[in-house]
Automatic annotation (TrEMBL):
It comes from the Bacteria. PANTHER family: GLYCOSYLTRANSFERASE. The keyword Glycosyltransferase applies. Residues 14-185 form the Glycosyltransferase subfamily 4-like N-terminal domain. The keyword Nucleus does not apply. InterPro entries: Glyco_trans_4-like_N. GO terms for molecular function: glycosyltransferase activity. This is Exopolysaccharide biosynthesis protein. SUPFAM superfamilies: UDP-Glycosyltransferase/glycogen phosphorylase (SSF53756). Keywords: Glycosyltransferase, Transferase.
Length: 390
């Protein structure tokens, strides 16, 4: 039986990059022949360092014109390159990831008459609070047209993301399938090992996060929660792993908070081992304003660490209050501090937290669901609705 030829298209990095890399690693090479077109303007360190290994599993084609900013010149050049690749390899499937690749890739696939075209938004652009008014109308219009005219099926990483698509009437419900992110069940360091690696005390409670210091992640609410909790209990240490444009603002807030708050909240910057050292924490605190399906929460569950996070799309599909963590309203530092205190006082068992990861968020489940669609066995084929076959 001939292999199914799959062309993946990726511009963004971060969670989208991780999703695509895990997908490439997970697809059976006896059944699939994979090519990846990737943008070069925003490659992160992990992607760059993993290129040689990734080349063992897929043909890699860089595209310098696949960029995030709106640039008609670059977009036309990227479209031309993607069309040339499609003509060369004649894929059975084109699968586009995030907004920019979603527009260029799906248009190229439509113009070249590719049989199956799939799209994973990784959170729609119109869901971002900073996009309102005319911009939001444009984004919704683009998503609606491409879904209806150039997409076989959209894979949403959360039910909330799918519900947002249906609320905007992007397309018929049958054109969407929820396939949540998954990660491999790899071993992580012990709590003692992770704390030693981070330079943290072996005893005492530690609340931490691994996230960029950007508006979406709302690090100032993290800082306010940390100030409230440590003021009442100086034995608790807060840790923020990640950098970004709001780092200085957080530093200034903590220094102005008084007492020993600045000493109890450690800003450790970017770390390559962030997904592993999460095992140092007694609770994981993510204060996002919006999400698709954040990998960091899944990494915490894999390590057996309970999660305290905002009650927004994606987050509220990972966290089951009373089972693996707690939820609180976005931007509400007082409620967040109370939720942290509850989890530290009565933490769920590590087995219950890990069990919630194993039930839904393994890489095998994610890859199997997507592979079924590629081969016509998902919702389109009417056999298993995109569910895991393992």
């Amino acid at each position: 039986m001939p292999k199914t030829k799959v062309l993946l298209i990726l511009e963004s990095q971060g969670g989208s990059r991780r999703h695509v890399v895990d997908l490439i690693h997970g697809l059976d090479p006896a059944r699939f022949e994979v090519t990846l077109i990737y943008g070069t303007s925003r490659m992160d360190k992990q992607f760059i360092e993993g290129l040689d290994d990734l080349a063992r599993y897929a043909r890699l084609i860089p595209c310098d014109h696949l960029v995030r900013p709106i640039s008609p010149k670059d977009e036309l050049a990227a479209l031309k390159q993607v069309r040339c690749v499609i003509r060369e390899i004649r894929p059975d499937v084109v699968h586009c990831h995030s907004s920019k690749a979603g527009i260029i890739g799906r248009l190229a696939a439509k113009l070249e008459h590719v049989p199956k075209v799939f799209y994973t938004p990784h959170a729609y652009s119109f869901q971002a609070p900073e996009f309102g008014g005319k911009k939001r109308v444009v984004f919704v219009g683009l998503e609606r047209w491409f879904s209806r005219h150039a997409t076989t099926c959209t894979f949403n990483v959360s039910a909330g993301e799918r519900d947002a698509a249906l609320a905007e009437k992007l397309d018929a419900p049958s054109k969407f399938d929820v396939i949540v992110n998954g990660i491999p069940d790899e071993p992580v360091p012990s709590r003692a090992q992770a704390r030693a690696a981070l330079g943290l005390p072996a005893d005492g409670k530690v609340v931490g996060v691994t996230a960029r210091m950007v508006e979406q992640k709302d690090p100032m609410t993290f800082a306010r929660i940390a100030a409230a909790v440590t003021a009442a209990d100086p034995t608790v240490t807060f840790v923020y792993i990640g950098d970004g444009p709001l780092e200085q603002d957080v530093h200034e807030y903590l220094n102005a908070a008084g007492g020993d708050v600045a000493e109890r909240v450690r800003l450790l910057g970017y770390r390559e081992d962030a997904d592993a050292v999460v095992s140092a924490f007694d609770a994981y605190l993510l204060t996002s304003l919006y999400e698709g399906m954040p990998y960091s929460l899944i990494e915490a569950l894999r390590a057996g660490v309970p999660v305290v996070t905002t009650d927004v799309t994606g987050n509220n599909e990972v966290v089951r209050p009373g089972v693996n963590g707690e939820l609180f309203p976005a931007g509400d530092a007082e409620a967040g501090a109370a939720a942290v205190r509850r989890v530290l006082a009565e933490p769920p068992t590590r087995e219950a937290v890990r069990g919630s990861y194993l039930d839904r968020f393994t890489a095998d489940r994610m890859v199997d669901a997507i592979a079924a669609h590629y081969q016509g066995l998902g919702r389109d084929g009417g056999r298993n609705g995109g569910k895991s076959t393992r």
